[in-house]
Design a protein that fits this description.
This protein is mainly β and 404 residues long. The protein has one helix at residues 9-32, and strands spanning 38-41, 62-67, 74-76, 79-84, 87-92, 98-104, 108-114, 117-124, 127-135, 141-146, 154-157, 162-165, 169-173, 179-184, 201-207, 212-217, 225-229, 241-246, 259-264, 267-272, 281-285, 291-296, 306-310, 313-317, 322-326, 332-336, 344-346, 349-354, 357-361, 368-373, 383-388, 391-396, 399-403. The chain contains one helix and 33 strands.
Length: 404
Amino acid sequence: MPAPERRSRIDVVVAVGLAVVVALTLTVVWLRSDARGTTSVTASPPVADPHTPLSVPETLQPVWSATSDVPGPVTAGGAVVTAEGGAVVGHDARTGEQAWRYERDHALCTVAPAFHNAVAVYRDARGCSQATSLRGSDGVRAAQRTNDADSEVTTSGNDTYLAVRGDTRLEVWRSDLVRTLEYGRVDARVTPDAQPRSGCTLLDADASSQRVAVVEQCPGEPSARLTLLDPSPDDAQKPEEFASRVLTEAPQSGGPVPRIVAVAGERTALYLPPVGDEGPRVGIYDGAGTLVTVSPLDAPASDDATSVRSGDTVLWWSGTDLVGFTGTDLAPRWVYPGTLGPGTVMAGQVLAPVDGGIAVLDPRTGVPARSIGLARPEAEGTVFTATVGAAVVEQIGETVTVYE
């Protein structure tokens, strides 16, 4: 029987030294990791799926309210989502109680409702660079990514793609937050000359499953440019253009800028500010960037103009009037004046926020069927509306109110 192995003093010292190095390495990794500054409390059981209402309620009363630092209201998977500081909170829509919470030691740039989740975008030294997709029903992390980004971003898109735009750079993500397109400023010049232009300011962007529309102002050009891109080219770092043209029908550089109303299929609707003898109007562009129809507006749109899409209906709020478009070819259907925000759709009816309540409109004609009185909180600003089941969610400024 061989004698037991005896460790020398040097062996012991080396082993202890290695253990210390490993412990220090793990400590440094932990201190520098995102996990150290992250708190995640998930919901168990998950928030119940809301029932789809068959009709719009006859009356609505305020049930609960909260504050939120980001534009909204954000709803996902049956939860109403609010944000404060670095925290994203999913509330039970019926009670307002916290169902889940996700918090990081970074400031939030925005929270976007996308892919039935809440996509939280956080700021670090690179800009609004860190994104986490949180499952709306329970707050579980579904996907994460980091990337180069501008210091401020806005989001838009559809059930297929989410467009994240800063002043100089645009990225398009699919539901797992994998990037399908980058456009504009690229710091890591891995593929030189991949971008069709440089130095442009990205003024607006939106995406459908077939097109990404970008309105940009490029150096030396007399007015804004409309660029139509493939949302998922063969190489995400090499944009593929369907069309790109300077908008000669828009005001000159330095004046009011065109803005995207909506993108559907291959078509793009743009708000065109007054220029020369032309008044304000909405232009519809086909997939090749050709202006095919123009619809005049009674008054210029305000800086707060915005749009929402619900099913087959696109609702664009000009700042005073609500305009209904078809969701397929973006044909204008109707105009309803005197509204406070873009509204939403419930049970096949348009809910348009107006003074003192909500106007219930036919989505095909814009004809009001009735109105619902609301006791809104005293707050100034655009009224943004969403629904969770039979509950109506409004956000004015940072105040979120749920009505049932």
